[in-house]
Design goal:
Blueprint lengths: L15 H11 L28 E6 L14 H9 L13 H4 L2 E6 L8 H16 L4 E6 L5 H8 L5 E6 L19 H7 L3 E11 L7 H8 L3 E4 H20 L4 E6 L21 H9 L6 E7 L10 H21 L8
The structure holds manganese (II) ion (2 copies).
Length: about 350
């Protein structure tokens, strides 16, 4: 009996890029069985040339700045897998964002070092800027919330952005255990660095007891509109949408979505869960309320698959990412989609 040889000729050597290209030639990803092939975000093509895409989904598998339970470094891979479940046409608007925009998977940030947050953050900023420099918009998939700061830096916007921040936590705390760059601090640093305009910032879903009010105080003192969960309950999601749109006004806006804004009943797979959060329905309704807001970038962060035994948190994060893609499509082309 002949054994298969281990030897390969150069003709037999197949690169990952070739495999992906062959897959794309073989069939239309939107009609092929969704469980097949190498998982990219939403079964989109893997981007080789950022300049030829309108929008890139970029994985940021980094959780070196958490103050408690790690695990969000596994977020991008699990969300890619869960996103294979997603389809194209929006149930409410009938928009197919993949027809409106050329969307692709930008791959993961290639980290050189991960044990120093400030060094890892430079890798993130650099990778994001390779897309923003050629005019390709991005949605970052985290990763812990510290990644939002280098993403904002990498966008290299000419003016401080408005901010819609959905989270259980304000993430405006200062130094913690010797670092100013934890996942509890990105928006404080973003204000200090002139990346975000606090007066055009709204924080939605804030809750949970704290050992100090420092972060909450920083947000209010700099003029951010903080919608604690009890106020969200009082004014309802429609009231929240109206207030958020009033606060961010007309200019460009970054949308940052921490999955712990949801109740742990819906999103258990996260490092710092807080009881009493949004339902999945409320979160999706909230996002749909931001149609037409000019988004300069967005992210979904803090999905920690080790705490997500059923995969429900990753599936929800994939749906949030899809809604963000639709918002981006509508922001770039207001005529896309139908009424509703
Ligand atoms: Mn956060
Ligand atoms: Mn949070």
């Amino acid at each position: 009996m002949e054994c298969p040889s281990d030897e390969t000729t150069s003709e037999d050597t197949v690169t990952l890029e070739q495999i992906v290209t062959d897959q794309q030639k073989k069939h239309d990803a939107m009609s092929a069985p969704r469980y097949m092939d190498i998982a990219t975000f939403m079964r989109l093509p893997l981007i080789a040339d950022p300049a030829s895409y309108d929008l890139a989904l970029i994985g940021v598998p980094y959780d070196g700045a958490v103050t408690n339970r790690p695990g969000a470094r596994h977020g991008p891979r699990e969300i890619r897998s869960a996103s294979s479940m997603m389809r194209a046409i929006h149930p409410l608007t009938r928009l197919n964002p993949y027809e409106a925009l050329k969307v692709g998977d930008g791959g993961d940030v290639p980290f050189k070092e991960v044990y120093e947050p400030e060094v890892a953050h430079r890798d993130i900023e650099h990778f994001i800027s390779t897309f923003s420099a050629v005019g390709t918009q991005i949605i970052a998939i985290g990763g812990d919330h510290s990644i939002t700061l280098p993403v904002l830096r990498g966008l290299k916007c000419s003016e401080p952005l408005g901010l819609i921040h959905v989270d259980a936590h304000t993430d405006t705390w200062d130094e913690f255990m010797g670092s100013r760059y934890t996942h509890g601090a990105p928006f404080r640093r973003a204000v200090e660095e002139g990346l975000v305009n606090p007066k055009r910032t709204v924080q939605i879903g804030i809750r949970g007891a704290q050992n100090s009010t420092e972060g909450w105080d920083y947000s209010s003192e700099t003029g951010m509109r903080v919608l604690f969960m009890h106020e969200v309950e009082q004014i309802g999601i429609e009231g929240v949408i109206e207030e958020a749109r009033r606060v961010v006004g007309e200019g460009p806006v970054y949308l940052s979505f921490d999955i712990d804004s949801l109740d742990p009943a819906y999103a258990p797979g996260t490092g710092t869960p807080e009881a009493g959060g949004l339902t999945s329905r409320e979160a999706l309704k909230l996002l749909r309320g931001f149609r037409g807001v000019p988004l300069a970038g967005a992210d979904v962060v803090e999905v920690a698959p080790p705490f997500d035994p059923t995969g429900s948190t990753s599936a929800l994060a994939a749906t949030v990412a899809y809604e963000l893609i639709c918002l981006m499509a509508e922001a770039l082309d207001p005529n896309s989609g139908e009424g509703a």
